Amino acid sequence: MKDFSGQVLFLDRNDINTDEIIPAKYLTENSKEALKPHILEDLHLKGFNHENDIKGKNIIVTKANFGCGSSREHAVWVFEVNEINVVIAESFARIFRQNMFNCGMLAIELSSEDIEALFSLGPQAMLTVDMEHNLITAENEQDSKAAITFTLNEFDRELVLAGGWLAFADKKY
Amino acid sequence: MGKTIAGKIFTAHLRDTPSPTNVVLDIDVVLCHEITTPIAITDLMAKGLDRVFDPDKIKAVIDHVTPAKDSKTATQGKIMRDWARRHGIKDFFDIGSNGVCHALFPEKGFIRPGYTVIMGDSHTCTHGAFGAFAAGVGTTDLEVGILKGVCSFREPKTMKVNITGNLPDGVYAKDVILNIIKQISVNGATDMVMEFVGPVVDTMSMESRMTICNLAIEAGGTCGICMPDRTTAEYLWPFIRESYAGIEDAVIDFKKWHSDPDADYASELTIDVTDLKPQVTFGYKPDEVKDVTEMEGTPIDQVYIGSCTNGRIEDLREAAGILADRKIAPTVRGILSPATPAIYSMALEEGIIKTFMDAGFCVTNPTCGACLGMSNGVLAEGEVCASTTNRNFNGRMGKGGMVHLMSPLSAAAAAVAGHITDPRKYI
Ligand code: SF4
Fold first, then answer.
1. Does domain B157-272 have CATH number 3.40.50.150?
2. Rounded Cα–Cα distance for residues B352 and B49 (Å)
3. Tens of pLDDT, residues B17-52
4. Is the pTM of this model over 0.80?
5. Ligand 1 centroid to B84 CA: how many Å?
6. How many helices (DSSP H) and strands (DSSP E) are in chain B?
7. Residues 6+ apart with CB under 8 A from B349
8. In chain B, where are the structural domains located?
9. Of A73, A74, A103, B331, which sees the most CB atoms within 10 A?
10. DSSP, res A68
């Protein structure tokens, strides 16, 4: 299982699409590693600094309809190779969410209130996802804390535990 | 409680129920193109799993960048070619026979009512026009599809979209679906199948139905779907004639896939198109839509007619009707990409290609090309394109470029005027 803890990258916008996460021109690459520097390269978000804001971050917290647009799994891989294994959002586009679980990664949906609570911890927030207890614990440098429960569909959990859909399906079907 | 068409297809293909809300389905056709498949192939090879579940159920095309534009795209093509040969995949379409996947595969008769279809491409929803469940998937789903012939889905919820009234002159399928997306927003149909029914759909051609289903994903929909009927049977007749004594038999047989009258819908929407005006997007999301009359005069630099949305023969005919005996504005670059070789040659025979060329258009080979900003018409920073494609995301056709989505008719009118304008003035 992958590591599901770390510093949070907050992306305060709805409808962030896969073209913004990884532009189409990089889809000609035949290795996941080659995508690495291009993470969120075309993100349109006020105040976002591509150079500095992504470094050291392992978890994305964002708003509604994250990952809409193209089916490109490159949008998930570019997170994976940058060691971002969790995206927490109000809602996801279906294919993106499926791609995350298919790669053994976590796409967690929370209510807008819970998302707000995470945002209010500020940019230095640290977060841990406890798969056993369905619990997200978060804290910031002022020692403000939040504990939020989440639900995970049984099958999605199995995919995460199996390390993804290919490993799961190869064994079972 | 009755079942929807999607529910019936799911039941008929059920392989496993790994959780109360998830199903694993047997897949009838796995479609592949050179952008998302090569990396699946290399991953399967690296894992020692370089096999295919059934070479006859896998169909592949090189369409996004063709002919190859550089060594990287050439390599993607080569990986596909070698793989198709290695596994005896007969239905592989390369230079000379290739075209945009969602126009080409239906044309070959690969999509049938009641089928399950997946492809590593979000606009796979297009194929629902044939009464199939067709969904875009990522590369891992594609790998499992290639290897095992299965795919996992959540139990489908269906949104019923009832399209009523009479389509006015100059208003087409594209305008209808853009208006629907405007009403329900870019995630209004997330995790749902959009079932398009009603008198307007009943009288639509397969081409128009494909246009409508093509944009289901722009509202977040898993699949667009139409009831297979006489129009479907007539379109598919060359491929199904061995199986039925006559068209009427096929029409009756197809009814087994129709949603039951008491089927359970998650939501319902009715749209009366009688007063609908041509629609155009104005922002960077496909639900940012206005009447063309509100966009009148917006300057443009390029017009693109093509893609899996509107590069079919019907679309070319509509546009040619406006371009006949007219010239495009000198400030505009016009690009036409017929979606498949069959469409291209039909357009040649009908004189449509000449009409486009006489008007000042450049005609390219069938390819996705400019639609995703890869080749054949990428925009420069600050440029504006009137386009018949399906995505207006910021940077989609080139960094810093703006895309206005519209019907082929509106795009042709914009080419002539040099700015966005009401196509009804030119009919
Ligand atoms: S024409 Fe555009 S939207 Fe359609 S498959 Fe090609 S790139 Fe995708």
1. no
2. 47
3. 999 999 999 999 999 999 999 999 999 999 999 999
4. yes
5. 22
6. 16, 19
7. none
8. 5-154, 157-272, 282-426
9. A73
10. B
